[in-house]
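request received
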Amino acid sequence: MPAHPDLLAQDAQFEKKLHKLAPNVFSAVGYAASNVHFLVGQEGVIVVDTSETTQAAENILADFREISDLPINTIIYTHSHRDHISGATVFANGRDIEIIASDNFKSDIVDVDETIPHPHAAMMARTKRQFGITLSDDERVSLGVGPGKRPMKGMGAGFMQPTVQFGKTTQIEREGFQLELAKAPGETPDHLVVWWAEERILFCGDNFYHSFPNLSPLRGTPYREFDAWADTMDQLMAYEPEILATGHTLPVIGADAIKQRLTDYRDAIRHVITETVKGMNAGLDPITIASALKLPENLADKPYLQEFYGHIGYASRHYFSGTLGWFDGNPTRIAELTPAHEAARMIELIGGADKVLAAARSALAEDDSQWAMELADRLIATGASVGEARQVKVAAMRKLADLTINAMTRNYYLLYARELEEAT
Ligand SMILES: [Zn+2]
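response:
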């Protein structure tokens, strides 16, 4: 099945390679969902981030060992997302090494307190779909900001707890490197960036990558601080970095190129905020606001603001619910009918389930896939023609998957389609 050509093109950057950023600094790109960075000193090595699987970490380490056989003495986590913390045991190699993170290092996926209610199971099911976990290599062509085809063995298995945590900007010296660690909230509140002034290299974690930022993942997440992420772009620019070692996608080289990207990222996030607020103040509902929202002309064509990973419409809807809540302002929604109740009445009004199924099938045939799904959902909700309706929905999702440039949307459609097929 052919994925969107732009999404396939985005994946071309994930050729497995240890990029040399300075004589003694390397970034491993293309081995894992995220990048792993090495700072090689006289007697030991610092690793920044560790990838999502022990298998990927082993592959990266094997290639790094062609460059240096020095021991890895320090690991720095830029943030707590699973794709950055799960290969630590491989790099530590059985030793109790120093592991540095921010003082609010905490993942909404990893650190689940079982004693309090938490939608963990829902999040896991949705995370699996977003990242296409268990899809075939042919189906999972991309993560948007990482290669689709990568080792899955040892996923989440190699995490080690931080041993040192910092609450504010801190200078450290390790292996001969004078580094500044600074809190820089963005994709997560616990982000830490690493600045090596001597070569003007900034390790920015997931605060910038080659895609529109993922302000609202389909897996579900607590509200992400849009303003904080935009403000952090100014904080990163203040370093005037010449090399940006990103947590995903290729590093960015050159002071001007970096400044342009960080400025555009900031402005894109602020644009989503401004336009969403305008819509909210005009009394519009979140779906209408999101469907009309586009980046302004000077940003719309920037290759690093395309929706390979983050999605402008999802971001807008997230901002709406995160700042104004679930209610769209329309009193009809206050005591809204349940989907099953609404569907039963709508199907009756239309003239019965057979008519609705026929309409869904012809919508599908005409590539009106969204409408086909909405009709199919009504049948599924009432239990009428469920098997046939599921078939329509499965086919519609597969069509939509091939049309989207957004990797998490593609993966979500494809895995959900398979789940529905297996349930039929
Ligand atoms: Zn990441």
